[in-house]
Design a protein that fits this description.
Layout (H helix, E strand, L loop, with lengths): L1 H21 L1 E4 L2 E4 L9 E6 L2 E5 L3 H10 L4 E6 L2 E12 L2 E10 L1 H48 L18
Antiparallel strand pairs: 1-2, 3-4, 3-7, 5-6, 6-7
């Protein structure tokens, strides 16, 4: 489940990076991003050869990424949070730029903790219900045998007039 959520998050990050690259323009010597629809909690940076030229990444994260050399995909701890960072490249007006997209990992970790908590409650509860149901069914199925055994204890070889009183059945 955690891997599935991480793959989903990675797909979202790559889609957001492509969205940014598609809406990137240069106006008056400056890069601008107009018309891109970014999901809440998504941060980005446009990275040129001299460093970040546009974006809203926290400064601590920018410093950490600059120190690492900006890998394609990485998990980074910066600004007191865990971050998932993905990168793609775009070629704009003869200049190659890296588009970095990041999101905090806290949401996935919180969802996973919640799932594990529910699982921790559900598994013992399910086992308890299954064990109780199994005991109930076993007792009910064996009840006729218990009645026959109890009645047979009172029969003796000297008094053959007593009967077990079995119901007429096909079994």
């Amino acid at each position: 489940l955690a891997r599935s959520w991480e793959r989903e998050r990675e797909s979202l990050l790559m889609a957001q990076a492509q969205e940014i690259a598609a809406h990137l323009e240069r106006e008056g010597g400056r890069w601008v991003l107009e018309g891109a629809s970014l999901e809440p909690g998504i941060y980005y940076a446009l990275w040129g050869s001299s460093g970040p030229v546009l974006g809203n990444l926290p400064p601590q994260l920018v410093q950490e990424l600059a120190a690492r050399g900006i890998p394609d995909r990485v998990e980074v701890k910066a600004a007191g949070r865990d971050w998932r960072v993905s990168q793609t490249y775009t070629e704009e007006q003869g200049q190659r730029l890296a588009v970095l997209v990041a999101c905090p990992q806290g949401e996935i970790k919180a969802r996973l903790r919640g799932f594990l908590f529910l699982l921790g409650l559900a598994v013992p509860g399910t086992l308890f219900v299954a064990a109780g149901g199994g005991l109930f069914l076993a007792r009910r199925a064996l009840e006729p045998i218990d009645r026959i055994s109890a009645r047979a204890r009172f029969l003796s070889a000297t008094d053959l007039s007593q009967r077990l009183g079995l119901p007429h059945g096909k079994d």
